[in-house]
Amino acid sequence: MRPHVETIQEKDYIWHAAELVGGEGRASERRLSVDEEDGSSSIRIDFHTAWGRGPGIHHADTEYYVLDGEMHYGDRVIGKGGYVHAPKGVPAEAIRFSEGARILHYREYGDAGFDAVDSTAAPRWEGAREDITVHDSAAMDWLAVPNAGPMPGLFVKYLHIDPVSGFYTRLVYAQEGWADHRLAHHPCYEEAYTTEGKMSYNFGDLDPGTYFFRPARVKHGHFVAMEGGTTWLMRSDGELENWYTQNEWVRWGGDAVNYSPEGGRMTWSYSSHDMAGGQSWRSDEDLRVLHTALNFQKEQGAPDSDYVQHGTGPDRSLVAMAKAYDLARLGQGHGDHDHDHGDGGEAHSHAHDRPHTHDALGWPAPNTLEQPDERTDEHRHNWGAGRPWKRGVDKPLPPIISTLPVRSRSLGRWDGDGM
């Protein structure tokens, strides 16, 4: 599985010699994220000379997207916005890139292997499906997203959709002022590279060259598209169902046994409310747009909660802790069970019928939130793996809280508001 990478700027990655088997020319790559288990990779490549290779079969589902320069696929020449999807095991035409070209390159479910063939008439691998997809995305129309979330202003160009798995690659444009005031998580992974514009975001601003990869169920948000709007190339390994969270809070703590400033023990506990510093880091314009998104959602009659910026209002984590403490005191620390108390040498028995604390607070037991096969299927070792999900059949899966993902050293920002 790939690690959670959140708002890392590609300039913080080092360059490697590009792993492009069987090609002629020089190129370098920045490895945005890599799955060392199955070879899947998301890569930024710069071509220092003209580069090319003849027809052949890729060992992985492979995609090329041109950020700058020219791509030649067979007899077709495409500039900025050119896109090719070559399915695993399907013969592809010769491909070439101009000197100075900059591209995004993706390999899924396989490594960089490439078998040269004489022509695309060569036999496919057994089990290979689909055909080669080629687009000039600059010539495609933007389509309004039918379910754009809290407000209109989100548009998409679909580059490729796998008819079996639902895996899809698309360009997404959020017009200036588009916002989502809620956190979301999904049953599939989600990754994006910002190609144009800027978006204000809790884990760090998204500007050109910013990249993220989120395993399934990692919670993220909120978003505000800045001047001129924002464009990403986005990929997901399944249908992107949105499960929203509002007015979230996190608090954790423990005993620092040997690393407190005094060299002794201390209790350490922060919440996202604490990290915001008691005030909102959002600008007045950000807050106006976020409340506009909330009001639109209410006008549509969709379920929602009022938007409360972290650092303002009551700290809900402390409120929940106080409720749990009161319930524990009322229940004298007991659950539903019979037991004996020693009293003046005489034992007596009684039953408590008070509910468990998490039930009384409305907190479900964790094992009730799992899909039936989560502890037994092939992904049981990895909680961040996606699971196929069908509306009305499977229950939504709970989010994973990732407070310290891999992130940019120099250009990232962490305000404690993204959890």
TrEMBL record:
It comes from Yinghuangia aomiensis. This is DUF4437 domain-containing protein. Residues 331-401 are annotated as: Disordered. It comes from the Bacteria. Residues 334-359, 372-381 have a biased composition (Basic and acidic residues). InterPro entries: DUF4437 (IPR028013), RmlC-like_jellyroll (IPR014710), RmlC_Cupin_sf (IPR011051).
